[in-house]
Amino acid sequence: MRILTALLLTFVAAGAAAHVSARQKQEAEAQPQTPAVIKLKGLDGKVYDSSAMRGEVLVVSFGATWCTPCTWELVAIEELKEEYAGKPVRFLWVSIEGEKQTSDNILKHYAKQRRLTVPVLRDPDAQAFSQFSTSTRIPVVVFFDKEGRHVGPVHRGMSSEISEYKKMVRTRVDALLKAGEAEKAAAAGAVGR
């Protein structure tokens, strides 16, 4: 009985340590050591640079064509893009697949099949992605404020309900829009004094 109790306590302690370690890892990933910048080429031939998109809230989703939750997440991203039309919000989707794994033609077909209107970018070496995550659990969504600063934490995974996922993204985007307006008002007040 004592041996069984000792084994049980060992497993519980190991599980708790793993949970704490995973949480610490997530927190560390949410706070990049250097300013995060995304500069990637899109399938449209344009280069998208997050530091050049100041004035807009930027929502960047990292995924892959083989990822089923990513497909559902793209539905939510497209719907949110329509919802925020006319507001200073931009959505980008980044494939973390290399060109040997998924050619540009296959990626273009994937985007066309899903009627994507958000720019589709490539991160073939996962260098941009690695700024935000050390695991390949996707989708991963990152947010940038109107000043071009990455605002953590990143969001991993896709809710089973698209409406819940959209609610999470909407809450983050609305907070960043509101914060941008408050900074703008504060700066205008400081100039007026």
Mean pLDDT value: 82
User: How many DSSP-defined strands?
Assistant: 7
Bin the helical content: 40-55%
Assigned CATH superfamily: Glutaredoxin
Structural class category = alpha/beta
Tell me, what is the CATH class? Answer: Alpha Beta
* CATH topology (level 3) name: Glutaredoxin
| Cα gyration radius (Å) | 20 Å
- The total domain count is 1
Shape: globular
Question: Which residues form runs of ≥5 with pLDDT under 50?
Answer: 4-34
Order of helices and strands: HEEEHEHEHEEH
- Termini, distance in Å? 76 Å
Task: Just name the CATH architecture.
Answer: 3-Layer(aba) Sandwich
| Strand order across the largest sheet | 5-4-3-6-7
Number of helices: 5
Strand content: 15-25%
List the helices and strands and how they pair.
Layout: H1 2-30, E1 39-41, E2 47-49, E3 57-63, H2 68-83, E4 89-95, H3 104-113, E5 120-122, H4 127-130, E6 140-144, E7 150-156, H5 162-192
Parallel strand pairs: 3-4, 4-5
Antiparallel strand pairs: 1-2, 3-6, 6-7
Helix pairs in contact: 2-5
